[in-house]
Design a protein that fits this description.
The chain is α/β, with parallel strands linked by helices. It has helices at about 15-20, 30-50, 95-115, 165-175, 200-210, 225-230, 240-255, 280-295, 320-330, 390-395, 410-415, 445-455, 460-475, 475-495, 555-560, 570-575, 590-610, 620-650; strands spanning about 25, 55, 65-70, 80-85, 90-95, 120-125, 130-135, 155, 160, 180, 215-220, 260-265, 300-305, 340-345, 365-375, 425-430, 535, 575. Alpha-D-glucopyranuronic acid (GCU) binds near residues 185 and 186.
């Protein structure tokens, strides 16, 4: 099995007579993306059915049976497609080349899933305009929070352009991703030079490969570039000289790399430079750059991950969770039209459980994008299995009450609520140069699921997992059932043996792996659980930091009151005694014990079922996963014991069930 092709490895399968009868592919219009759509179909059919259809240059005269026809036709939104069967032919109609490519991949998916040919009629439009990956790859080849090898974009301060990039582009297009940022948001050293002629040639080549699959290349930008490149001594966004510098620079960049989509910027965050240095606002900074890229249709994607990372743990007033809101809410409506604010799903930082970021629903006149992380930094680092699509579904379906209807996070980032067209969803990527792309083979379900979800948020997490399993490992029923069981229980299991009830953190500082209950407790990062012998949790109600009040009603009151706050977020919003009874009927302390014991049991069950797949999965993949499952089994015990012991010793309250606590 070719692991490097992931879900596009196209193993030969038993197919129906009709599928096997496809013998010709004809595209009415010409174009580079269309050509790829046609060759993708040709390769997939040849490998899966064993018969290679011919690519036909002339329109077939009459006999359409067994033909695939690609046809540009208006009527759907950009990237949309209509795939249907007519008199034995399969027709893909789309308004643009990208739509035809997506339609072709939809057809390949139908073939891989063994779905019915006759009567096929599928019509889809991408719900979110921008569907992006954010790679945190450094130019020396390392990846910040990367758990699947090194970068395939960079090595030794050079840009790599090779076959893997082509496969990468195909994988992205096959799930509908249409933009990618290839370098880390923490732009330092050589990466600052990406906007200079040192790298233009390679960037152009890369952007063309991506463009052939309907994908725009984006770069992360160093806000202080004019200074760090040694050309100016200021990066003040209101200085005429600085503004002129950026305009000149962007002219050069877009002339040399015409397919560039724009830039992602992390400013005034965790030590990165930004407009604060000059007493200016984020809007000043973003607008200066937006003005410079505007003539080329460029976008400035500005991150809202801004907080005080030098906090004193004794300070109970400053609340990191508030900071995104406090920094950006008042700037609503002051950004240029080609600026998009990119907001993490939660107010902290990709924990296993967080409330939805309160900026969603608060910003009404600003383009916005949702940022999630599939790299699993805090959710097992691609050694534990943690299928995150169910979490993303919850985030997307969260009602903000910013309007009477159509006010969920999904509605906002798909442009429905505030009638925006520059919006969407980005994921911090989980790929590297490991043969299977994602280290843990099952982590590829997050890669796949993210793209599919951004295109079609109504798809169910289970449906996406199942599709991915069949496309990757074939139709074996046992494989499907077991992997589905594992994926669908994995986030729940991870949450159970992790930090309890929405409090988060409790990890080893800096590398963020493995339990350390007090690891961040007395540190400067603003991430505290505030546990003492009586209780645990952060008071974010009106009596505490007031964070709960940042939501619109009825969410604000619901979170503000411990009686109505959902159990899974109780300790995020409230400091509660250990003997407080949750809505579930259990006390906080008993909940901690029970979930930690049960989480480990669930992992044991997952591993037991997985071991039953020996011989049914490709051996290499089986061994790779087995090794990780054994680690997860051990490591979940470590989590259980560290957390249970800590709270047993702190509270002095015994487990009702008398299980062993160290
Ligand atoms: C987290 C992560 C950093 C990253 C940052 C960000 O804090 O640990 O590595 O740079 O998020 O999103 O910018």
């Amino acid at each position: 099995m070719g692991f490097e092709q992931a879900w596009l490895s196209y193993e030969k399968r038993e197919v129906s007579v009709q599928w096997a009868g496809i013998h010709m592919i004809y595209a009415e219009q010409k174009g580079r993306i269309i050509e790829h759509a046609a060759t993708e179909l040709q390769t997939a059919f040849a490998k899966i059915t064993g018969k290679e259809p011919v690519l036909c240059l002339e329109r077939p005269e009459k006999e359409l049976n067994g033909c695939i026809l690609l046809k540009q036709k208006n009527g759907l939104k950009e990237g949309g497609y209509h795939l249907f069967e007519r008199e034995g032919a399969l027709v893909i109609e789309a308004p643009d080349e990208g739509g035809l490519l997506y339609g072709a991949f939809e057809l390949i998916k139908q073939l891989q899933l063994g779905n019915a040919y006759e009567g096929m009629d599928i019509c889809k439009e991408p719900v979110m305009p921008l569907r992006m990956l954010n790679h945190w790859d450094n130019m020396d080849g390392s990846i910040e929070r990367g758990y699947s090898g090194n970068s395939f974009f960079f090595d030794n301060d050079e840009i790599l352009v090779d076959e893997r990039i082509v496969t990468y582009a195909r994988l992205l297009a096959s799930v509908g991703i249409n933009g990618t940022v290839i370098n880390n948001v923490n732009v330092k050293d050589a990466a600052t030079w990406l906007i200079t002629d040192r790298y233009f040639e390679k960037l152009r080549q890369l952007s063309e490969i991506l463009a052939d699959y309907g994908i725009k290349l984006f770069l992360s930008l160093n806000y202080a570039a004019p200074v760090e490149l040694g050309e100016l001594d200021s990066a003040d966004p209101l200085s005429e000289e600085v503004r002129a510098w950026w305009k000149e620079r962007m002219k050069l960049v877009f002339t040399q790399v015409p397919n560039l989509g724009g830039f992602l910027i992390k400013a005034d965050s965790e030590g990165r430079p930004g407009p604060f240095t000059y007493g200016r606002t984020h809007a000043d900074g973003a607008n200066m750059l937006a003005e410079a890229v505007e003539p080329y249709g460029g976008l400035i994607i500005w991150r809202c991950f801004v907080y005080n990372c030098k906090q004193d743990w004794r300070d109970y007033k400053t609340d990191r969770a508030r900071s995104g809101y406090d920094n950006f809410k008042e700037l609503d409506g002051t950004f240029r039209d080609n600026v998009i604010l990119q907001i993490k799903n939660g107010p902290m930082d990709f924990q296993v459980r967080e409330p939805v970021h309160p900026l969603f629903g608060a910003l009404e006149a600003t383009n916005q994008m949702l940022e999630v992380q599939i790299a699993q930094e805090y959710t097992g680092q691609q050694r534990h299995v943690c299928y995150l699509i169910p979490m993303f579904k919850e985030v997307l379906s969260f009602r903000t009450y910013a309007a009477e209807t159509d006010d969920t996070v999904e509605d906002i980032v798909s442009g429905k609520t505030f009638k925006q067209t520059k919006c969407g969803m980005a994921a911090v990527a989980n790929t590297g140069n490991d043969e299977n792309w994602t280290g843990h083979d099952l982590a590829a379900a997050n890669f796949y699921g993210f793209g599919r979800l951004a295109f079609e948020p109504s798809a169910q997490a289970e449906e996406l997992a199942e599709e991915w399993i069949i496309r990757t490992f074939g139709e074996d029923k046992a494989v499907r059932e077991v992997l589905l069981f594992i994926l669908m229980n994995s986030w729940r299991a991870y949450e159970m043996y992790n930090a309890p009830l929405g409090i988060g953190w409790m990890v080893n500082p800096s590398y963020h792996y493995g339990p350390s209950v007090d690891g961040y407790e007395y540190d400067r990062w603003g991430t505290y659980h505030r546990a003492d012998h009586v209780g645990i949790g952060v008071d974010r109600s009106h009596q505490g930091t007031g964070y709960a009040g940042l939501y619109r009603e009825p969410n604000a009151s619901m979170y503000d009151n411990p009686e109505s706050c959902p159990d899974e977020l109780l300790l995020f919003f409230h400091h509660m005694p250990y003997d407080h009874r949750l809505r579930s009927g259990k006390t906080v302390i008993q909940h901690i014990y029970d979930t930690h014991f049960e989480g480990v049991e669930l992992v044991d069950e997952m591993v037991k079922r997985f071991e039953g797949l020996e011989g049914k999965l490709p051996d290499k993949a089986y061994q790779r996963m087995l090794e990780r499952f054994h680690h997860q089994k051990e490591h979940s015990r470590e989590w259980r014991d560290q957390i249970n012991s800590y709270f047993y010793r702190k509270s002095g309250i015994a487990d009702e069930k008398g299980r062993k606590i160290f």
